[in-house]
Design goal:
By secondary structure, this protein is of the alpha+beta class. It is 32% helix and 13% strand. A hairpin with a 5-residue loop joins strand 1 and strand 2.
């Protein structure tokens, strides 16, 4: 028996973004994967944690995450 076709979550977006209770989209900082020895400790510290996505990109990301908002 075939599965019914419906809307699905884009798993690539689900792994990269989180949506807060107020509807903002959080993303991890870029630039923390490699070549870290050339970045000073203050810069590496500031790459920790998350920041919000720009409002112009929020709509497209939320389209890929239909069950989180």
């Amino acid at each position: 028996m075939r599965r019914p076709k419906g809307i699905k979550t884009k798993k690539s977006a689900a792994k990269r973004f989180k949506i807060t209770a107020t509807g903002k989209v959080l993303r991890p900082s870029a630039g923390k994967r490699h070549l870290l020895q050339t970045k000073n400790p203050k810069r590496r510290r500031n790459l920790r944690g998350t920041s919000t996505v720009h409002p112009t990109d929020e709509y497209r990301i939320k389209q890929g995450l239909p069950f989180s908002h």
